[in-house]
Design goal:
The structure is a single chain. By secondary structure, this protein is α+β, with helices and mostly antiparallel strands. Helix content is 31%, strand content 23%. The protein has a seven-stranded antiparallel beta sheet with strand order 3-2-4-1-10-9-11. A six-stranded antiparallel beta sheet has the order 5-6-7-8-12-13. Strand 19, helix 13 and strand 20 form a beta-alpha-beta unit. Helix 9 crosses helix 10 and helix 9 runs antiparallel to helix 16. The protein is elongated, with a radius of gyration of 24 Å.
Length: 527
């Protein structure tokens, strides 16, 4: 689920390309907050800066303001292969000297796995850097191939390094000696794409420009925009928000897009044959920002359908921010059916300075962060609660969340909510019921394509075999409701102009579009 992006100038007049990359990285920081990195080129050399935590703290502004260049790539890391940097390590590390390039630093704990990953070919005198969003599924097969060709020492624990190693190998050993000059790098990428399997959206930077490529199923997003002086690639459009940019579309599944420094046009190559489309449905449910037009429409429709299935009068409370739009959709339908008994209030206000707890690599950090993340605003509901108490036997608080994965958020919040309500309204507390509604189906299977849910024992729906009663009791809710997979896919397909079969929903169904190795874990490359 990492956030990646890059920009390449259409002319050869150097600009503050690192600062542009930093701003874009800050904009999509919700896709990863363990560490961040930028690599830029001036057309001759590549320079990298990496750091712990979110972009604003990981990449010093003083470094970005000093670095002019012609192209750059960046990544916000959410670790899905290789060890991450937990909150304790991030906070205790000394600030990185902004004037020192990453290549000149001593090894820092956990930071080697942060991207961009850099490698050079001494044989060809070519330097490359790469960022990836996704996960490869045939790691043992790739390592066997590399080992066979004498490549068995690695600098990181990530599958991203394996991609770069393959590209450099095929640069130095082009198939059939057909790749010459400018075509060499494209041929190396094509040959690499024929070797790797799984989910990958990648940006490769050389001193010639950026080469974007995406897996043949299109599992993870990768979009393109154009400004008067550049081409931009990013996981999501918000990366270029506020700039004079025109959205051009997606990097298509199996495609390579070549954006060379100084060129006013993009070149397109088919890296591998396009396979059955399988865009991750969880991107629409949770991963992407709600201020994407299509995502917003989808989530509103999810909420409306939730009401059709789980209609209740009462007070709708969104789990900010991912459940907010679905909650508005639910309430818009609710207010029509239950006029006078329908209310909406963000009673759990999210601290804007605490990021997504889902992103933390450690369970303990996720729980701690949850406790700091929300403020309870139930005093403001006094009038509504007492009004409903007079009108009916039960007072329903209807919480709308995007999903229930490990249940850390729901269990923690329900405990906080119950305690708060008991203290504030002891005389009507017995009437108050909590409905927890999810704008997605039960999350029952691990994701092997870029979300850190490898351990099936952590998934509450899998633990209780999707038994609604047992899951509800586990989180201490009065009522629990999901959105069926059929409705989820139908709504998303309609908005995207796709078919219901064009999505990967393996985390809900166990049907994986790319063959997986069930023995593969997040730490499988750790030696």
């Amino acid at each position: 689920m990492c956030g990646i992006g890059g920009e390449v100038l259409k002319n050869k007049q150097k600009k503050l390309i690192a600062l542009r990359a930093r701003n874009a990285g800050i904009a999509i920081n919700y896709r990863g907050n363990e560490s961040a990195g930028i690599t830029i080129t001036d057309g001759i050399n590549l320079r990298t800066q990496k750091g712990y935590g979110e972009f604003i703290e990981a990449i010093p502004l003083t470094w970005a303001e000093l670095k002019k260049g012609l192209a750059a790539i960046f990544q916000n890391r959410y670790s899905t292969t290789g060890s991450g940097v937990n909150q304790t390590e991030r906070t205790r590390q000394k600030p990185i000297n902004p004037l020192i390039e990453f290549e000149d630093m001593e090894d820092l704990p956990g930071l080697a796995n942060c991207q961009p990953f850099y490698l050079d070919s001494e044989k060809l005198r070519i330097n490359i850097a790469l960022v990836q969003n996704g996960n490869l599924t045939n790691l043992s097969e790739i390592k066997t191939f590399l080992d066979k060709h004498g490549i068995n020492e690695f600098l990181t624990e990530t599958d991203t390094e394996l991609i770069v190693r393959l590209i450099v190998y095929f640069l130095e050993n082009p198939p059939h000696n057909k790749a010459k000059g400018k075509h060499r790098i494209v041929t190396a990428i094509k040959t690499t794409m024929q070797k790797i399997k799984g989910a990958y959206s990648c940006l490769l930077l050389t001193n010639e420009g950026i080469f974007a490529f995406r897996d043949p199923h299109g599992i993870r997003p990768l979009k393109i925009a154009e400004t008067p002086d550049s081409f931009i690639f990013a996981s999501e459009p918000v990366a270029w928000h506020g700039r004079e940019a025109t959205y051009l579309g997606n990097v298509s599944p199996g495609q390579i897009i070549e954006a060379r420094i100084g060129s006013k046009t993009l070149k397109t190559h088919q890296g591998v044959k396009k396979s059955k489309r399988a865009f991750c449905i969880f991107e629409d449910i949770y991963l992407q920002a709600g201020y994407n037009e299509k995502v917003a429409v989808i989530r509103k429709k999810f909420g409306e359908r939730l009401f059709d299935l789980h209609a209740k009068p009462g007070i709708v409370i969104p789990i900010m921010n991912s459940g907010e739009i679905a909650a508005l959709g639910y309430h818009s339908s609710q207010s029509l059916k239950f006029p006078g008994k329908s209310f909406y209030w963000p009673a759990l206000y999210k601290n804007p300075h605490v990021g997504r707890t889902f992103l933390e690599p450690d369970e303990e950090d996720r729980i701690k962060k949850n406790k700091k993340k929300y403020f309870t605003l139930f005093k403001a509901l006094k009038k509504e609660l007492y009004f409903l108490a007079k009108m009916q036997k039960e007072i329903w608080l209807i919480f709308i969340d995007d999903s229930l994965v490990r249940s850390n958020v729901s269990r923690t919040l329900i405990k906080i909510v119950r305690q708060c309500l008991k203290e504030l309204y002891p005389d009507i507390y017995a009437k108050i019921k909590i409905a927890w509604l999810l704008s997605s189906p039960p999350y029952t299977h691990p994701c092997f394509y870029g979300v850190d849910t490898y351990n099936v024992n952590d998934l509450i729906a899998a633990k209780f075999d999707s038994n609604i009663k047992k899951i509800r009791q586990s989180i201490n809710a009065s009522y629990l409701g999901y959105l069926p997979i059929e409705d989820t896919l139908t709504i998303a397909a309609e908005v995207h102009g796709l078919k219901s079969i064009d999505f990967c929903c393996a985390c809900f169904t166990g049907k994986y579009p790319v063959k997986i190795d069930p023995q593969q874990t997040k730490m499988c490359l750790v030696i």
